[in-house]
Design goal:
Elements (H helix, E strand, L loop, with lengths): L22 H15 L7 E2 L1 H7 L4 H13 L3 E4 L3 E4 L4 H28 L4 H16 L3 H19 L2 H21 L3 H20 L2 H13 L7
Antiparallel strand pairs: 1-3, 2-3
Helix pairs in contact: 1-3, 1-7, 4-6, 4-7, 4-8, 4-9, 5-6, 5-8, 6-7, 8-9
């Protein structure tokens, strides 16, 4: 089966398929993007026939995508009741944030001396921040969210801690959903790039203690309400 190039015009734009390694991963990301953008709601039932049609794929890769999301706790399959998007209540969101803080504190502590020894590594962070700035100016929230994830993913990559990277990727889709529901106005847009630039500068300074405090504040800064 060929890769999905586009969706029917009737499908909400935020649920366009991204180019990924497999069709099932493309579908999983499209569903997560839909949840983040509000096109799909927590608790909503997902119908395979309808989703497969909207995403222009067969039900086989769609079922694989739903299995991926179920294994990550983003959808729930209940016998005789079908598959539903999981509820992201206050307790769950807090747990996701706490887990992310712990992982990123480890990543930053390890990455800081690596960045100091090789300043050329900052080029990718600077590129991501510039992209984030442009998307924020245009109020393109999905792109801002993607840039945010890319920034933190890059730091985890540079840290070289493979376990942190694996666990962080497990949380990434959850974070994308939460972020999409909490960042939505011009005031948020104006602070996004400066906040990430501060993290970048603390990495350059090698101030691990300040980085650990900053990342906790950074992750919790937009914690507002349950989805």
């Amino acid at each position: 089966m060929t890769k999905v190039e586009s969706l029917p015009l009737s499908f909400p734009p935020p649920l366009r398929m991204a180019r990924m390694a497999s069709l099932s991963e493309q579908a999983a990301d499209a569903i997560v993007t839909g949840i983040s953008a509000g096109a799909l709601k927590p608790g909503q039932r997902l119908y395979e026939t309808e989703l497969a049609s909207l995403l222009s794929i067969s039900r086989v890769p769609l079922r694989e995508a739903l299995k991926i999301l179920e294994s990550q706790g983003i959808v729930e399959s209940i016998p005789h009741r079908g598959t539903h998007i999981a509820s992201f209540d206050d307790q769950r969101v807090n747990q996701i944030c706490e887990s992310r803080i712990a992982l990123e504190q480890i990543a930053l502590s390890t990455a800081a001396p690596i960045y100091q020894s090789d300043p050329g590594l900052f080029a990718e962070l600077d590129r991501i921040i510039a992209s984030m700035e442009l998307s924020a100016e245009r109020l393109e929230w999905i792109e801002v969210s993607k840039a945010d994830l890319s920034f933190h993913r890059e730091i985890c990559r540079v840290s070289g801690n493979e376990i942190v990277q694996i666990l962080w990727e497990t949380l990434a889709r959850h974070v994308f959903i939460i972020f999409g529901h909490e960042i939505r106005d011009e005031r948020d847009a104006k602070v996004m790039a400066p906040q990430h630039r501060r993290l970048r500068d603390l990495l350059a300074a090698g101030d691990v203690r300040a980085l650990r405090d900053e990342i906790e504040w950074h992750i919790l800064r937009v914690r507002r309400q349950p989805l």
